[in-house]
Specification:
Blueprint: H1 5-23, E1 25-31, H2 35-46, E2 51-55, E3 73-76, H3 78-86, E4 92-95, E5 98-102, H4 103-117, E6 120-123, E7 125-133, E8 136-144, H5 145-150, E9 157-166, H6 173-182, H7 201-210, E10 214-216, E11 219-221, H8 224-230, H9 240-259
Parallel strand pairs: 1-2, 1-9, 2-6, 9-11
Antiparallel strand pairs: 3-5, 4-5, 7-8, 8-9, 10-11
Helix pairs in contact: 2-4, 2-9, 3-9, 7-8, 7-9
The structure holds ligand 48H.
Ligand 48H is lined by residues 31-37, 54-57, 62-64, 126-127, 167-171, 173, 199, 223-225, 234-236, 239, 242.
Length: 260
């Protein structure tokens, strides 16, 4: 067969357009493709829910590729190792209770698992706003990341979603947008984004999981964003809390879906 160059272009334009149309109304829209967002997307898609994940960068994986200081190894504790085992990600025991895994293998496996479970992964999209009706957050406002990076004045488009997950890491961007622009109180002790605190891995890992919560009706927070929103410390390159938080956010949303 002789390849027709324009047919290649048509295949891309047609199938991408179908994919984009397919995510404009969804069950769960996740913002951020780091470990927490990918884990959440995997579990929700595996449960049969329609899930889209928007990631600003070219690649999924967030802050996991580089391990600690670019030594591309991550560390997990016992509970985190169980999650890696579920994905078939290899670990070595550095010391009892401290397991190391290859950051690249972990990142790529999580991304692959989420995609294969049926989540639609949209890279190069930035979430710049939320869709609000009265006091109800009903979706996300998205634009191409290169538009954002170039500072071009190009209007965005809108996605309607029953549930939203802020998995944007340290920046907690969705929570900040809701706090600043919607003029509503979040379900935090202050009603606001409380800000991340200095490093303490042990406390941070526990709080990440405890603070994986609904922060506004049908809006959840997962991963590092939990610590930013609820004023928890950071934990450095231990990633068990991120993986467990992604799993937890999926469980919480599935439970709420069942009850409503
Ligand atoms: C689209 C966006 C937007 C937006 C951000 O930072 P992440 O890896 O987040 P987590 O929570 O899955 O994992 C955190 C972990 O990587 C980490 O930083 C740790 C453990 N730090 C400890 C420490 O002490 O420093 O991924 C978030 C992703 C990134 O890829 C962003 O590009 C993306 O979200 N993102 N995507 N629209 N508005 N904002």
């Amino acid at each position: 067969m002789v390849l027709d160059d324009v047919k290649i272009s048509e295949a891309i334009v047609r199938t991408f357009t179908e994919k984009l149309l397919g995510v404009l109304r969804t069950d769960v829209a996740i913002v951020g493709g780091g470990p927490a967002g990918l884990c959440g997307a995997y579990h929700l898609a595996k449960a049969g829910k329609k899930v889209v994940l928007f990631e600003r960068k070219l690649s999924m994986g967030g802050g996991m590729w580089g391990g600690g200081i670019m030594f591309n190894q991550i560390v997990v504790q016992d509970e985190g190792k169980e999650v890696l085992d579920e994905f078939g990600i290899r670990t070595v025991t550095a010391e009892p209770g401290y397991f190391a895994a290859d950051a690249v293998e972990t990142t790529m496996t999580l991304g692959s698992a989420a995609a294969k479970a049926g989540a639609t992964l949209m890279n190069l999209f930035s979430v710049e706003d939320v869709l609000i009706k009265g006091d109800s957050i009903d979706g996300l406002v998205i634009n191409w990341s290169p538009v954002e990076m170039a500072g071009l004045h190009v209007d965005p488009i809108t996605v309607r979603s029953r549930f939203i997950v802020d998995a944007t890491g340290h920046a907690a961007e969705v929570s900040h947008i809701i706090e600043k622009k919607a003029g509503v109180k979040l379900f935090t002790p202050t009603g606001r984004v409380m800000g991340e605190r200095p490093m303490c891995a042990d406390v941070a890992e526990r709080l990440t999981l405890e603070n994986t919560k609904e922060i506004y009706p049908r809006v959840y927070v997962t991963g590092m964003a939990c610590n930013a929103v609820f004023g928890g410390p950071r934990m450095g390159p231990v990633f068990g809390g991120m993986l467990l938080s992604g799993k937890r956010v999926a469980e919480l949303i599935l439970a709420e879906m069942q009850n409503t």
